[in-house]
Amino acid sequence: MSRDYFGNLPVVAGMAFSRDILLLDDCEGTFTWQTAGTGGDDVHEYLAAAAYAGTAGLHLKTRTTDAAENDLLLAQKWFGYPETGLLVARAKIASPSWAAVKAINFIAVHGDGARNYNGQLKYTPATGVVAYANAAGVATAIAALAHLELEYQFTTWELVIDCRTHQYLSVAINGLRASLVGVALWDSAAATQRYAGLALSLTTSGAAPAELYASHIYAGENLEA
Questions:
Q1: Residues 50 and 27 sit within 8 Å (Cβ to Cβ)
Q2: SS3 per residue for the chain
Q3: Could you tell me the maximum CA-CA distance found in the chain, to the nearest angstrom?
Q4: Which of 43, 47, 99, 214 is most buried by a 10 A CB count?
Q5: What is the pLDDT of residues 136-170, one digit of tens each?
Q6: Does 8 score more than 80 pLDDT?
Q7: Tens-digit pLDDT profile for residues 166-205
């Protein structure tokens, strides 16, 4: 395709129909994410205040009433299996209050018809630790990516995995990249479907609801998009 993928604004109308674009959500249309939470009165919507650019972004809030520690909210979307086997997930992520967030997870998942595999980045705001889920699902710190986020600061998160070998390739956050070539993904369960998906989740650190913003959400087979 001879399109400019690098302009100031995403070329949604053309790119969304490219065979190597699995998900391209500018959060300007209808909310179509599947959500699950433990609070019972969570918020999941497209909201102007959550926008990085444009008129809206994805807004997740664990509750509208008083929270409890470890309240969870998950948003996910399923799409087709990448034809080349390369799956690149990327989003711009922020929070209006990192103190209320115990942890967030950025997850790229796929099933090959036999097993489910998860690539997962976990960020713990209180310590600045960024970790990936190893083959057993255990969080493993990536020292080179440790940092503390500013409130309302959007940073780009990226997770690149190989769906053929079921391994990580690289992860990046806040402008820093770490190679995970050869590291096995979390083999989480048996599967009968062939699919891929993307998910975001957050948990609360205490009695205040936790909030997360996300924008320019992409999944596909292009390392640059």
A1: yes
A2: CCCCCCCCCCCHHHHCCCCCEEEEECCCCCCCCEEEECCCCCEEEEEHHHCCCCCCEEEEECCCCCCCCCCEEEEEEEECCCCCCEEEEEEEEECCCHHHEEEEEEEEEEEECCEEEEEEEEEECCCCEEEEECCCCCEEECHHHCCCCCCCCCEEEEEEEECCCCEEEEEEECCEEEECCCCECEEEEECCCEEEEEEEEEEECCCCCCEEEEEEEEEECCCCC
A3: 51
A4: 214
A5: 999 999 999 999 999 999 999 999 999 999 999 99
A6: no
A7: 999 999 998 899 999 999 999 999 989 999 999 999 999 9
Give the span between the Cα atoms of 104 and 193, in whole angstroms. 27
What the block records as the tokens of 160 is 């690149």
pLDDT at position 17: 57
CATH of 12-220, one of 2.40.50.140, 2.60.120.200, 2.10.25.10, 2.30.30.240: 2.60.120.200
Work out the number of other CB atoms within 10 angstroms of the CB of residue 123. 26
Return d(Cα 168, Cα 160) in angstroms, integer: 6
Domain ranges of the chain: 12-220
Q: Is the pLDDT of residue 16 over 80?
A: no
Report pLDDT digits (tens) over 73-131: 999 999 999 999 999 999 999 999 999 999 999 999 999 999 999 999 999 999 999 99
* Dihedral angle sign, alpha carbons of residues 72, 91, 166, 81: positive
Please state, in angstroms and as integers, the Cα–Cα distance from residue 215 to each residue in 85, 164, 193, 198, following that order: 25, 28, 28, 13
